[in-house]
Amino acid sequence: MAVLGKIRALGPVALISVIGLALFAFVFSTGTGTVTDVFKADEYNQSRVAVVNGIDMDRSDFMQKVDNFEKQNRGSRSSIQSMNSVWDSELKKLILQSEYKKIGIQIEREMMRDFLKTNLTSFSEFQNDSEEFDESKLNQFISNLKEISPETIELQGSLVNYESWNNFEENIGDFGLEEIYYKLIDAGINTTLFEGEEDYYNANDVVDFNYVKVPFTNVPDSEIKVTKSDISNFINENKNNYSSDPSRDLIFVQFDEKPSTIDEKEVELRLKDLLEDKEEYDMNSQKKIIYRGFKNTKNNEEFLNNNSAIKFFDSYVFKSSFSELISENIYSLAKDEVYGPYNENGFIKATKLIDSKFIPDSAKVRHILIPYTGSLRSDPNILKSKDEAKKTADSIFSILKRNKNKFSTLLALSSDKVSNENEGIIEFAYLDGFAPEFRDFSFEKSVGSIEVVETDFGFHIIEILSQGKKQKAVKVGNLAIKIEPSERTRDSIYNLTSKFEIAVNAENFRDYAKENDIKVNPVNNIGELDENIPILGKQRSIVRWAYDKNSDEGDIKRFSLQNGGYIIAMLTSLNDKGLMSYEKASITALPKVKNQKKAKKIIESIKSSTLDEIASLNNVEVQTALSVNINNPVISGVGNEASVIGFAMGINQNITSKAIIGNSGVFYIYVTDRRKASSLENYQNFVNKINTSRSNSIRVNSYNALKEKAEIEDFRGAFY
Question: Which residues pair with 428 in a beta bridge?
Fold first, then answer.
């Protein structure tokens, strides 16, 4: 299997070669079957995405579920994110499936019927005349599905076929078995009265004490010596804290394809050329023809739609829509005057004032919406034709024109359920994105006006209730050309990238980058199924390369970036599963080892037996902690110090303690008072509290424990 794993890891091209050789050997073999067996074994490995406790996770089924998940989320999640979500679900299913097999629980026919009844009892399709669940109707429904497969039947507004019904039953069964499994675990977990009593006293027994804390920072780093052996010993003594999954580390330099100053100037010249009229001689007519530029054209919409990266926006905007740097310049323009060229948000622009007027900045209206079949976002149950909807709207308008007080009584005819909850009232700003016809009526007509207005949503009967303060608004045209790197610039960047790639190796990568003032970006702990690289974003190809069997430390490779430019990456570390490397672990281990050595030095230096003497010797003060308990081991102003609180609960009063090594320093304490809680006749309430806490965490803790001990062979990296 190890050999097959190596073959599979070679990648698609090498794998095709192996398969080709296998077929060749099969045709001309002497009949021993050895090559054929290898071929079949490798084909078997390609058919599964994982093996969990000896159970195969089928590759085609897994990929189909990932595809369905992506479709359900309509592209809101990436392929890797979708895959990981399906993986979590399928992994859990197989881990629990292996447990069900061990303890002998499975779904019998009657159990499945009970599960279905529980989930479908409210479905009218499966109810009798008394509105009770009727199993015969369910059986008939399933039989019909099977008979017409793969055709569909509507169920509760959704289309269902025999395959999707089987998937539904499978999910119901899995959920039911999971419930049974966790209930069995829950039933086996009991809390004793002794535990309840202990919890009561831990929460209510309190202690007061004085203390001195000698911070670790009192000892300078220069006064202690930490060897590599000290750190290695600490890591080995705390292996659980320093274990890691396989990961990769790399460094990279980036070469962006950014436009040069010359590129920007060239774009500006192109835009200036579009501003002015052009005169051309027409050979056919023997006349000169003048083509109007942006400054003089009368058809601004056509000109911009043909020549600008920003198309014509046929509406008015307020001053706040422009950046502060240009708003005054544009608002001071005369009609048909142009401001620019100027550079803004990656474009060279010129802005022309087409029109201006004063309009309210907000409006308050109320409306009744009458949709028709095919109108935007109309309910599927709407059967009115467009003409019928118009007649209804006109009838409502006639009534309201005579008596606006009847507006509320006619709201029941409106399909806008959201505004109906507010008596049909809508308050919105001019730029809030309403249908143009709705907006124009609401802002351009006077308060009190009422009319029928048609939009893509249907026919609105709108009454204007109030309008905000009128302000100057302008209609502008923006002639814009995006500033992009020229071919000359792209070639220059390509050459720089190639020069770097040729010049560097594992030994001089960082030094060469530094000499040429190129930033080196480190990336650590890249997982095999990660897709995002810091700074770069989604870069799955880089991760695949880092985990390729043929990639090794010191390997260097160039990658093209999706939005232009390149990176040169170098693999710096291949980290196997197990203990972290010394370099990684020492980042967090070193401070802890330092504190251990500092604690020892502090303890050795203190010979005094009273808190006052210890405090004076170390330039700290004697502090007081009041009413602390085991269940909340926090010292006010210090933080969590479980060791100190635990010591305080057990030491005799009026005795200075020995040194206690805490999280932030070395402590010495002197208990001044201890108050034991009164005993109770019954501790059942505390038992119940513990039971509830344990029950709430059974699912998560049980599954995590099973997952930790599961034997999982994960092949996803070969397919994603």
Answer: 363
Burial level of 469, CB count in 10 A (0-12/13-18/19+)? exposed
Residue 114 near residue 126 (C-beta atoms within 8 A): no
pLDDT value at residue 478: 96
- Classify 137 in phi/psi space as left (phi over 0), alpha (psi -120 to 50) or beta: alpha
Inter-residue contact 54 to 102 (CB < 8 Å) = no
Q: How far apart are CA 2 and CA 10, in angstroms?
A: 13
CA distance 48 to 714: 9
Partner residues linked to 713 by β-bridges: 51
What the block records as the tokens of 361 is 């900045």
pLDDT 10s digits, 451-504: 999 999 999 999 999 999 999 999 999 999 999 999 999 999 999 999 999 999
Q: Which residues contact 131 (CB under 8 A, 6 or more apart)?
A: 124
Three-state SS letters, 334-364: CCCCEEEEEEECCEEEEEEEEEEEEEECEEE
What type of residue sits at position 496? L
CA pair distance 415, 534, nearest whole angstrom: 48
Distance CA 287, CA 389 (A): 56
Helices and strands (H, E) in the chain, number of each type: 24, 28
Q: Report the alpha-carbon distance of residue 488 to residue 574 in Å, rounded.
A: 39
CA pair distance 393, 477, nearest whole angstrom: 37
What does the block give as tokens for 176?
Answer: 């039911």
Separation between Cα atoms, residue 79 and residue 323, nearest integer Å: 38
What does the block give as tokens for 595? 């504190």
For the cut 50, the answer to whether the pLDDT of residue 300 exceeds it is: yes
Arithmetic mean of pLDDT over the chain: 88
State the DSSP string of 547-612.
H-TT--TT-EEEEE-TTS-EEEEEEEEEEPSEEPPHHHHHHHHHHHHHHHHHHHHHHHH----SHH
For residues 354 and 335, the answer to whether their CB atoms sit within 8 Å is: yes
CB atoms within 10 A of CB 239: 11
Spatial distance between the Cα atoms of 308 and 317, rounded to a whole number of angstroms: 19
Alpha carbon 94 to its chain's center: 26
Tokens 């203990």 appear where?
A: 579
Q: Are 667 and 210 in contact (CB under 8 A)?
A: no
Give residue for tokens 């994110």: 81
CA distance 697 to 704: 11
> Of 175, 187, 163, which is closest to residue 118 (Cα–Cα)?
175
Q: Please provide the DSSP assignment of 215-243 as one string.
A: EGGGS-GGG----HHHHHHHHHHTGGGGE
Smallest CA-to-CA distance from 265 within 490, 483, 478 is with 483
- Report whether 71 contacts 59 (CB < 8 A): no
Burial class (CB in 10 A: 0-12, 13-18, 19+), 226: middle
Residue 91 to residue 49: CA distance in whole angstroms: 11
Residue at 314: amino acid letter: D
Question: For position 114, what pLDDT does the model report?
Answer: 84
Q: What torsion, rounded to 10 degrees, do the Cα atoms 134, 137, 139, 144 define?
A: -170
- 208 bridge partner residues: 673
What is the amino acid identity at position 435? A
